[in-house]
Amino acid sequence: MRRTCLLIPLLVLFLTACAPTVPPVADDYRQRDPVIKEQVLQAIHNLNVMSLDHVTVTVNKGIVDLNGYVYYQSEISQIGDAARAVDGVRALRNHLFVPSRGGGSQRMSL
Asked: Could you tell me which CATH number the domain at 23-107 has?
């Protein structure tokens, strides 16, 4: 009986000491996502590309989504590279495309 009385508090102490102290990802990114979005927008703006009026940026838990269209194929990768380089970006989903002149679109996902 005495061993059990000593073992239980020691077990509780051990399990408490091993508990993670890192805040959950959702709580951390709830504060960081707006900062990441602003930094991505600034990085894209610094490129001086002409198509920014048609590009939207959303960030959820460090995952950046780029949506919209650009005028030149080269801008798709330029914008994606600039967004990917921002600190805190965990992943990038680049859904930018160049509208074709025939009414369709050329979509390129990176």
From this structure: 3.30.1340.30
- State pLDDT tens for residues 64-106: 999 999 999 999 999 999 999 999 999 999 999 999 876 555 5
37 burial via Cβ count (<10 Å: 0-12, 13-18, 19+): middle
Looking at the DSSP assignment, which residues form a beta bridge with residue 65?
58, 93
Where do the structural domains in the chain lie, given as residue ranges?
A: 23-107
Q: pTM score, two decimals?
A: 0.68
Would you state the structure tokens that stand for residue 3, as one six-digit string? Answer: 């061993």
End-to-end CA distance of the chain: 64
Cβ atoms of residues 36 and 59 within 8 Å: yes
